[in-house]
Write a structure and sequence with these properties.
Immunoglobulin-like, 4-stranded mixed β-sheet, 9-stranded antiparallel β-sheet, Glucose Permease (Domain IIA), 368 residues, mainly beta, single chain
């Protein structure tokens, strides 16, 4: 009997404790989750390194060349590879009109009109050679480039990029279409009348092995006009392609990357185009080298890094787009975010831009 009483007493105590806990929980106010405004993420502290600047990049006061500085640490981002802060992205409204960037440093995403198709069928190489872009000098080793190169074997068929009339066909052994005679070797020049443009546009196809058209002949976009070769002043088999606006002269070239329709990437998505103007506080274009990093995922390291020159200026002027007045361009870029970094007068400058499929991103940067 005594054992039963003890058992009942213990059971009563347990029930009392449970009741008290339940009562306390039920009388407590319910937990509420209140949305808080996002707080800015502080920049990670720089990592000291005896051979580098405190930013984890390259010495800010380096007297060496920009390419020399970049080549020291090709695997790192200029600012140490820190994650992209969304606040740095200033995406402008997409517009089909001319750029409407309100201030220096803005960038615009534009539904740019690319009037011409590619000069090769998609079964051949259609990518523009990145080591010698329009306006480039291969970092001082060559004359400023007035066109672009597309590498393909000798005999690869070349197609007209648009409807037009053959203005020149044959070779330039006795006709000066470039800086001197026999510069392009066998060539074809087409005259086009692009809708919306008062001035004629000329496309030049140089270094051909054979020419398949005659002067005065009318062609349609996609028609065979010649075959790839290495005639004239050429090293290796390739097509030299130019766009000239207003007059058929070497001084009237424009960047072909702003005229040829962007190619499709491996996933079938159309590439985008990045165009910019780097200028001094007085508005004068600056010649320098840019480092451009591609971030498909801004939380990870860049997937691709490009080193490009702004257009060089010399006695052979390099033309640019009448609207953009650009002095650099990167074409056939995968959509995503890109970080542009440059150094002028010992001062580093960077900009973030976004590139979208089939569109043109235009950025302006003022540097010392």
């Amino acid at each position: 009997m005594k054992s039963l009483s003890v058992t009942l007493l213990i059971l009563a105590l347990i029930l009392s404790a449970c009741t008290t806990k339940t009562s306390q929980e039920s009388n407590s106010p319910p937990q509420r989750f209140v949305s808080q405004p996002a707080q800015p993420v502080p920049e990670p502290p720089p990592t000291p390194h005896p051979a580098r600047s405190s930013w984890g990049g390259f010495p800010l006061s380096s007297a060496g060349s920009l390419m020399g500085s970049f080549s020291l640490h090709p695997a790192r981002s200029l600012w140490g590879g820190f994650p992209l802060k969304p606040a740095l992205i200033d995406k402008a409204t997409t517009s089909s009109a001319a750029p409407s960037c309100e201030s220096i440093g803005d960038f615009c995403i534009i539904q740019h009109h690319f009037p011409f198709q590619q000069p090769f069928s998609s079964i051949f190489n259609t990518s523009i050679e990145s080591s010698y872009l329009y306006g480039n000098t291969q970092f001082g080793h060559l004359a400023p480039h007035h066109g672009v190169e597309i590498l393909n074997p000798t005999g690869t068929p070349i197609l007209a990029v648009g409807d037009g009339v053959v203005a020149a066909a044959g070779n330039d052994a006795h006709n000066k279409y470039g800086p001197w005679e026999n510069f392009y070797g066998n060539l074809v020049i087409l005259e086009h009348h692009v809708p919306g443009m008062e001035e004629p546009v000329y496309t030049l196809y140089g270094h051909l092995s054979t020419v398949k058209v005659q002067v005065g002949q009318t062609v349609k976009g996609g028609d065979l006009i010649g075959e790839v070769g290495a005639t004239g002043r050429a090293i290796g088999s390739h097509l030299h392609f130019e766009v000239r606006v207003g007059s058929n002269t070497y001084a009237d070239t424009r960047n072909p990357g702003l005229w040829l329709s962007p190619r499709n990437g491996e996933n079938g998505q159309q590439y985008g185009t990045l165009v910019g103007k780097i200028s001094s506080p007085q508005g004068n274009p600056i010649y320098l080298t840019l480092k451009v990093e591609y971030y498909p995922d801004t939380k990870k390291s860049p997937k691709e890094t490009y080193y490009i020159e702004t257009y060089a200026s010399d006695t052979n002027p390099i033309g640019n787009n009448d609207i953009y007045q650009e002095n650099f361009a990167l074409i056939d870029l995968p959509p995503g975010y890109y970080r542009i970094a440059l150094s002028a007068s010992g001062k580093w400058t960077e900009r973030w831009v976004e590139v979208e499929s089939g569109k043109l991103s235009f950025v302006t940067i003022e540097s010392s």
